[in-house]
Design brief:
Elements lengths: L1 H20 L14 H20 L4 H5 L9 H20 L13 H20 L9 E4 L5 E4 L1 H25 L8 E2 L4 E2 L2
Antiparallel strand pairs: 1-2, 3-4
Length: 192
């Protein structure tokens, strides 16, 4: 009996520590107001929650998995999601995009940075009444800077990240590692 209680306490403590270290163990409480900013923020929160659970408990074997020779492996897909999180955060912060060097981050570092980027993005959006001020600026190889309004954030990097999180779930299942039990994607909470 002591062993069972000890094991349960360790599990609860590790979940609590993990939830405090990284955002999106659960979705933050919803805003009482419906504004453009709070709706966009909630969309990013949903993405963060899905990303958190899609990446929770991934193994080295999972990270190397790819469904075909032509496809990205799971690690490269996560790297792409990180890039998308940087694009979105840069637009709402009004900063130039700053991407880590390829291969510079471990999976754990990449996961943490992606989740923090989603959280920062959500917090900025939540407090904004005017989404038109969030312009995405992409510097092309020829040096030309292209600007896109916030609409393109929705159908571009945010929707693309949601798409790729679905791929992560599919890849991990195909690799034999289904999602952990507990998260409710409808409520944004974790059932114990």
């Amino acid at each position: 009996m002591k062993t069972v209680i000890t094991t349960l306490l360790i599990l609860i403590m590790s979940k609590t520590m993990n939830s405090q270290e990284l955002p999106y163990y659960e979705i933050p409480e919803a805003s009482k107001e419906f504004t453009a900013g709070t709706v966009a923020s909630r969309m990013v929160d949903g993405l963060g929650f899905r990303y958190y659970w899609a990446t929770e408990g991934l193994t080295e074997k999972d990270l190397k998995y790819k469904p075909s020779e032509e496809a990205r492996n799971l690690f490269d897909t996560l790297d792409h999601i990180l890039v998308l999180s940087i694009m979105t955060l840069s637009a709402v912060e009004g900063t130039e995009m700053d991407f880590p060097e390829e291969g510079a981050l471990t999976f754990a570092e990449m996961r943490k940075l992606t989740l923090k980027n989603f959280k920062k993005t959500s917090d900025i959006l939540k407090s904004s009444d005017d989404l038109s001020k969030f312009v995405m600026k992409i510097k092309r190889r020829n040096g030309k800077v292209e600007e896109y309004p916030f609409w393109n954030q929705l159908n571009g990097p945010i929707a693309d990240a949601i798409w790729h999180v679905g791929q992560v779930v599919s890849f991990r299942r195909s690799a034999g590692n289904p999602l952990p039990k507990g998260p409710s994607f409808l409520t944004g909470t974790v059932r114990e």
